[in-house]
Amino acid sequence: MKTNWQGLRAHHAEIADTRIAGLLKNPSRAAEFSVRHGEMLFDFSKTTLDAKALSLLLKLSDAAGVEAKRDAMFSGAKINETEGRAVLHTALRNLNAAVMVDGENVMPPVRATYARMVEFARDVREGKIKGQGGAYTDVVNIGIGGSDLGPAMAYLALAPYGDGPRCHFVSNVDGAHIHDTLRGLNPETTLVIIASKTFTTIETMTNAETARVWMAAQVTDPAAQFAAVSTAADKTAAFGIDPSRVFGFEDWVGGRYSMWGPIGLSLMLAIGPAGFDDFLAGAADMDAHFRHAAPAHNLPILLALVGIWHNQICGYTTRAVLPYDQRLSRLPAYLQQLEMESNGKRVSMDGVDLVEHSGPVVWGEPGTNGQHAFYQLIHQGTRVVPCEFIVTRQGHEPELAHQHLLLVANCLAQSEALMRGRNLAEATEIMAKKGLTGAELDRQARHRVFPGNRPSTTLAIPKLTPFTLGQIVALYEHRVFVEGVILGLNSFDQWGVELGKELAVALQPILEGRVSADDKDASTRMLVDYLRAAKQA
Ligand code: F6P
Q1: Domain holding 108: CATH number?
Q2: What's the confidence (pLDDT) of residue 16?
Q3: How many whole angstroms separate alpha carbon 243 and alpha carbon 233?
Q4: Which are the catalytic amino acids?
Q5: Which residues pair with 56 in a beta bridge?
Q6: Residue 408: which domain range?
Q7: Which residues in the chain come in under a pLDDT of 50?
Q8: pLDDT, tens only, 383-423
Q9: Burial class (CB within 10 angstroms; exposed 0-12, middle 13-18, buried 19+) of 476
């Protein structure tokens, strides 16, 4: 492994002067450095990767045992070693297969729960299951992290397919979130879904209690307005939720990988079971591609290798995800959890320090909005930010096709501009035509130079549908997995969230004034004093 990393670094140094625009003069580069899967196209030709770099990266992946570990994951092996769990979110979109964990086929109860979800969703959508005031018009999903980001992202993404109740997503413990969400709703026609794998998460349980009080004040049978999604049936029962409205899942579904099962209930209510099935089918299609395509043509493996090249080899510490699709506006936030909670680790599976840096900071916003905000830095800042563009061939509004064309033009223009840049001679010529001369011309021209040679990839899909969204999300899940295997870490635990949670519990009584802040550091004591005073005011 070590020699593979060294080989990559040596090659990176050798090709340090490579210009992407120069590479693209090779007429076969675009075809060679892109992959098609069905109607999906992934173009990574606008990067500095050359054939040797790609072959070294493929060797790195091979030496890390990506394919064997992938097969182990799909087969139900306990690859989440720090929690002693299998990793089987893929089974949720391949319901008819048998999957053995500890010698037992775990799928029959999964299928049974899925059938109950479908029935529940149908009955809610048809008004057979209803609230005190009649058919549910609104669904409030209370959850956080993996119990929120996936369904919230997909609900927005699939708005054109939404023909069920309106969905709202409450996650933040900040009371403003639930307050503002419930304010416009009629409790008698609102279904509250409490979504929490553990049913202990403080934010979710606090918001659930607030919703219960809100409901109890206005309806005679609050229980009829709630459902729950959790692995902890005892805790949902203790909360008072009727077992017929509780949809369980297993500990081998990680929180940030859970939208394919009961955590996706709000999405299923919105788009219907058939649409949800298409979403699962898209993900299953990507699973099959990941399992069977040769590494050099395998989308998740290639996305991961491009990521490793940019982050660990080139040293670019962040990655911008830039969907040119307003409905994917929550995708960057979703990917932040997926990537950063999965691969933001500092020790390897064996508990020794990582030899390479962990995964990148992932961030982004939809285009074209970002163009008028942070693209300045992407084009002219001193640091390089690899960009991942996502674009669709067709929008959902035929009457606004001219706007979609403009959107696509902007997406392509950005990747082209990042690559080409504008040199000083070109900038000088432009400013000279505007009448500038001498020192002022030099000064003004320098501000208008774009260094260019900034790498980007583009994922192009025909249209944003349940199927293609399923493909995209599964693609990113597997990319994270491959990166994790290559870095040698466990992508499926999240110990890094624990310390802050523990300290928050300890700070609560201090802020209430019940416990002294004396053993806190001076900074925290000062902030406690300040914030307590504000609370009393
Ligand atoms: O704080 C991290 C985390 O455990 C995430 O991994 C998870 O998605 C989220 O909290 C919510 O957890 P739960 O579904 O158990 O409420």
Answers
A1: 3.40.50.10490
A2: 95
A3: 8
A4: 341, 372, 501
A5: none
A6: 2-64+293-420+454-493
A7: 537
A8: 999 999 999 999 999 999 999 999 999 999 999 999 999 99
A9: buried
Q: How many domains does the chain have?
A: 3
Would you state the pLDDT for residue 1?
67
Residue 209 in contact with residue 219, Cβ under 8 Å?
Answer: no
431 inside domain: no
> For residue 33, what are its two tokens?
């450095």
* 323 and 472 inside one domain: yes
- Whole-number pLDDT of residue 223: 87
Q: Closest residue (by CA) to atom 6 of ligand 1? A: 255
Q: Is 4 in the pocket of ligand 1 (CB under 6 A)?
A: no
Beta-strand (E) ranges in 218-276? Answer: 226-230, 246-248
Q: Compute the distance between CA of residue 437 and CA of residue 139 in angstroms, rounded to an integer.
A: 64
Please list, in sequence order, all residues whose beta carbon lies within 8 angstroms of the beta carbon of residue 66, skipping any fewer than 6 positions away: 295, 301, 482, 485, 486
State whether 252 and 304 are in the same domain.
no
372 and 329, same domain (yes or no): yes
254 and 208, same structural domain?
Answer: yes
Do residue 310 and residue 350 come from a single domain? Answer: yes
Q: Quick one: pLDDT at residue 335?
A: 98
- Whether residue 75 lies inside any domain: the answer is no
Q: To test the ligand 1 pocket, which listed residue (85, 87, 144) has its Cβ within 8 A of the most ligand atoms?
A: 144
Query: Residue 436 falls within a domain, yes or no?
Result: no
- Write the residue with the smallest CA distance to atom 8 of ligand 1: 146
Residue 326 and residue 393 in one domain: yes
Strand partners, 195: 229
Provide the pLDDT for residue 301: 98
CB neighbours of 458 closer than 8 A, spacing ≥ 6? 41, 42, 43, 46, 388, 389, 390, 391, 411, 415
From the CA of 497, give the closest atom in ligand 1.
1
Cβ(320) – ligand 1 distance below 6 Å: no
Nearest to 443 by CA among 432, 454, 451: 432
Region of residue 391 (left: phi > 0; alpha: psi -120 to 50; beta: else): beta
Residue nearest to atom 1 of ligand 1 (CA): 497
The CA-based diameter of the chain, rounded to the nearest angstrom, is 81
Which element (helix H / strand E) includes 149? helix 149-157
The answer, as to whether pTM is greater than 0.90, is yes
